[in-house]
Amino acid sequence: MALIHIDTPTTDGRTLRTTVRPSSDLARFFTGNPLEVTYDVDLESVPDSLLVVPALAQVCPVAWAAGADVYVDTVDATFVSALEDVQAAMLEMYDFLEGSDLYAREVVDTRVSSDDSDDENAESGLLFTGGVDSTCSYVRHREEEPTLISIRGWTITPNRSADEQWGHLVDRVTGFAADRGLETAFVEANMLSFLDHPMLLAHYKRYVDGGWYSSVGHGLGLLGLCAPLAAARDIEDLYMAATHWEGIDLEWGSRPDIDDNVRWAKTQCHHDAYDLTRQERLDVLAAYAESDAPDLELQTCNDRMDGNCGVCEKCYRTAVGLRLAGLEPTEHGYPFADDDYHDLRRGLEGGRWILGQDERYMWEDIRDRVHETEPRSPPERAFFAWLESADLSEIIDNSGSPLRHRVLRAGARNAPDPVYTTLYPAWSIAKASYQRLLTRR
Prior knowledge:
Helix content: 40-55%
Radius of gyration: 22 Å
Distance between the termini: 34 Å
Shape: globular
Oligomer: single chain
């Protein structure tokens, strides 16, 4: 029988550790490492019923995929109800998910310090990277003065090799917050090395567009990591910026029917700005830059954290969107000139980047705005004319993971457990080059 036991979490000052014990048939989906999460607040006052939430948030989607029941000692009653709602939403979204049950020795109505506070003084938090979506959510909720929460573990891994990238993000978010009198919170977690994401993708890539965490796990997973932090800081409203918008029915790990259902104790999570397209979010930022922040800089690059490279697909896409919103990209963090339109078109047509259906919708959103915009220059006019007639579906189909990755997935998926265990070192070496796909969003 497939099952997963989650042991009672332990804390050491600001670090949370949770050991997970899967049945043998599910062992391939776990690396054997405990889930470790480090916060910048002391966890002593956080009850066990909330300390288990980060592990449950990572494990449950795997359990639902495998039809494995999950066992814990103590858990918050509100979060149990939330998991039922999130599971229902995910089962409706994905046919390959089987669903499962959660069993707990004790389900408790958790009380936190904010239970006795005035709702008018409730704190809020916002998952924040400094990109288009999270910055737009800040602008929309700036009257609440939300705590800006940045999480290391997905796009920036906890590996020592990524320390410099994380340092750049911390400096940038700290500076943004200081300029606006905001609090910050930084969370570091090993969820990509706690679960065996290459193996999960080997089994389930055929059902998802992108990585396991982006397509299935990141809405519940990232919000769940914040439960101990929210309890320690009395955060009652927690916002996660939308990637997509109304009218896009993509299978994606963060959607209103997922994020809006995540809750624990007195904290309610919110999927924010789903009513705005990405271009409309850039319009919000353009108005904010004009009224309050003329030197506003965004960070969206897929390749760097100390600024924007200007030559990856996301940098190009953001720069074009900024121009369509009436801003000059070079004034907001993007080295972009008219000559870059030619390179952008060549990259899209030539399959230079791994793109998914979400990028297709974003370029369609840009194309819709092009209809309403007068080009500034001949190169811009030529690119807009090409974009209006381009077959974006064909561009997406021409991109994708290299053949060697597809072969690795098939081999790992079909290997019996003893064979997989024997071959695991080779798989571990191969997956290093595979990591880029796993963290793409």
